[in-house]
Each structure stands twice: as C-alpha cells, then as structure tokens.
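LAB NOTEBOOK - FOLDING QUEUE
OPERATOR: T.R.
BATCH SIZE: 2
PURPOSE: Compare the predicted structure-token outputs for two unrelated chains run back to back under identical settings.
PRIORITY: normal
REVIEWER: second-year student, initials M.K.

ITEM 1
FIELD SEQUENCE / FIELD STRUCTURE:
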Amino acid sequence: MRLMDTVTRRGLRIGELAKLLGTTTKTLRFYEQIGLLQPVTRSASAYRLYDDDAIATARFVIGLRHLELTIPELQRLLREDGVTTRRQRLLALMNERLRRVELELGVLQGRYDDLSARHAALLATPRDRPPQCVCDALLQPCTCQ
C-alpha cells in the first residue's frame, strides 16, 4: 500500500494539500470560502481533512487558475447550467481569452513598431544636428537649428 493511499484514507490536512498542489493554505481557505471548493470534513481536533474527491476538485481548480481564469469565470465554469457541458464552457472561456490576448498582441506589436521606427529615425539623425536634437525620434521636422 502506497503512503498516499494511506494518507487519503484519513484525508489530507490543508497544509499537506497545499504542498501537494504547490499553493498556499490561505488560497485553499479562500477557495472554500467563495464556493470553489466544497466544505471539508474536520478531524477531532478541528483540522480540515480533504478526501479524494476534494483533492481532485482542488487539483482541478488550481489547474484552471494556471489558465489565468478569473474567479468569476471559474465560478461560472464550475456551476452546472444544464445546457452546456463543462468542456463547452471552458472552450468558450478559452476562445474569449485567446481573442483578448490576440488583441493585446496587436496593440503591443503596434507599440513595438512605433518605438522601433522612432529608434531607427533617431539613429539616422544627421551628425550635423545639435547633440541635444531628438526631433527625429519625435517624427517631426527638426526645429533645433
């Protein structure tokens, strides 16, 4: 019998689960408080004990957080709506996220292109210009002379 099998029979304490999932006890308590994780059983000394189902749910939620889903998105994803499957809801969220990232990339590419053009223009500034002249970086006619 493996150690993990023995541990999960009695349940994992919150610190053990946090370590297993690479997160903090504070995060797990917060997820429980907002309903992402179901309340767990307690030991005789009032320690939270997570059974296999709770461990699987916690692993799932932590995994989804690695997709950078927001808490409201996670709550919507975990809530059964009777119309769409969890996979369909996750695909919809990921499609939206991809569209947002694509838009951000477009904006960043535009900023990069602008900065690159200004940098190239400043590098190409004629040497006969005053040393303080930065007109070319501003993409405007030189007014320094």
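ITEM 2
FIELD SEQUENCE / FIELD STRUCTURE:
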Amino acid sequence: MANPDPEIVRKVTQWLGFADEDLKLASHTMDLLVEDTPYRLIAYHAQQCAEKCLKAFLVYHKVDFPYTHSIGRLLRLCGDLAAWPQTLKDAKELTPYAVTARYPGEDEEVTKAEALRAVELAQQVRTVVRSDLQKLGLQVPQ
C-alpha cells in the first residue's frame, strides 16, 4: 500500500504508541523486585500491547474491526491481509488477561512465569506487526 493517507498514518502511530506504553509498563513492572509484584496487571498490559498492535495493522489497511479483546479474532482479521498471523497463534494465550486481570470474580492468579510469557508474546506481536508495517512503507521506530 503506497503513500497511505496521513490521517491513517496518524491513527496507526497512535495505536502503536499506546501499545508501546503498555509493553513498557509491563516490562518495567517485571523488573520490580518486590514480594507482591502485580503479575496479573503485567499480563493485562502485555495483552493490551498485542491487541493494540494488531488493531494498528487493521487501521493501516482500513479494516473495520469489532469491539473485542480477542487476540484470536484479531489475528483472523489480519490473516486476510498477511501471512504472519499463523506464526503468532500462541499470542491467543493473552486473551484471558484482558478480563481476568480487571474484574473482581474473574481474577485468576497470574504467576511470574505466566507474566513473563505474556510479555514475551506481546513483544513477538509488536516485532512482527511493526516489521510488516515498515515493509509496507510506514515509518515506525523499532
């Protein structure tokens, strides 16, 4: 897609910026050496990073997406536009963190290992999406 509309570029950049903030928060919180590190919130922000990266990709391609936190559903939508969603299928593991970390009664315990895995998956999604957007001509910092 050559020379995307400046408004689309602005929106995509905003989505990616918000995603980066979520990942930065998750990563920095993992570095806290406290006994009661909030692993559920780390996993939540990792999920949010992946979700926002995928939505940025869809915005770039002018694809309307439903109000959803489902990484699998977003990957399916991206799959109509790119070959990489299959390689990110493990990112579907992040979907439950969109809800379980935010609402009482839905708050399953998140372990340190699970939080680390969530951050790793979010980083993978971020890397793949940004790389593809760059190949399409969008100037995004890595």
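REVIEWER COMMENT (ITEM 2): Helices lie at 6-30, 39-60, 71-79, 97-100, 112-135.
FOLLOW-UP: none requested
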